Amino acid sequence: MNFQDKLINPQNTIALIKEYEFSFKKRFGQNFLIDAHVLEKIISGAGIGKEDTVLEIGPGIGTLTQALCEAAGNVIAVEIDHDLIPILDRTLAAYDNVRVINEDILKLDLAALSKKPLKVVANLPYYITTPIIMGLFESGAPLKSITVMVQKEVADRMQAAPGGKDYGALSLAVQYYSSPEIIANVPPNCFIPRPNVGSAVINLIKHEVPPVTPEDPDFMFRIIKTAFSQRRKTLVNTLRSDRELGFSKEQLETVIKDMGLSETIRGERLSLAEFAGLSDRLLELKKV
Ligand code: SAM
Questions:
Q1: pLDDT tens for residues 121-145?
Q2: Which one in 126, 184, 250, 261 has a CA-CA gap of 20 to 30 Å to 154?
Q3: Ligand 1, residues 16, 28, 128: which to mutate, most atoms within 8 A of Cβ?
Q4: Rounded to two decimals, what is the model's pTM?
């Protein structure tokens, strides 16, 4: 599909911004995409077709939105910045399959947005990447997938496997809900203004059933958060130092040994399945 003739490009992006006397707001993470190849990668990576309803977070001046309107059945675009609404009225005037909502995505009832399955596609404002993604997963909205531009370092953390420096609570939370795959690395010169970090497009395909079923997922995430709070310490010492959890060194060593793991293991070596097992065993201890 060739969007380039019809859609916003670097030249008319600058012209539009000048005409509307729009000034970029750092506090809203405004870095607008100006690269048609990246747009095509996002659309094809998200696998958008006419049967799809797409939620876009932060349409900006509508560059990605136009491409989504071309490819999808329906588009819901949520933009916080009131100053962008008149620009969007103009750039999206040719499309009758888009609804623009001038709201903060973090304050919207996401589950009420659509009854149809939703694909989320966005060039995210980086300052709220994690709350947006976790908010989407936890909202109960009928999500199928999330295909988003994020800071490269954050994409690496989402996709990381146990043992490496990027692996942490974010990897485990994202992988509990979805299968992540980085589909493109995007340099700063693909945006106006240029961000001072590298970017990547990541595809998160939501699991139909979670890969693990701990008795109390909230407790598992509580354990995970503590396990990564002091990465250099052993798992036993980190969990023991959390007074609220209230486990003794002996209790923790016994549980970890019973799982066939070393007493000196660090949290960063445990898989999601092992955290689920650990969480269930610790929950049992709490019941005694
Ligand atoms: N989609 C456009 C593009 O690719 O050129 C703009 C992407 S820009 C990185 C992020 C967009 O998210 C901006 O338009 C910004 O105003 C908007 N935004 C920031 N915080 C938001 C929030 N809490 N809710 C909705 N939109 C937000």
A1: 999 999 999 999 999 999 999 999 9
A2: 261
A3: 28
A4: 0.94
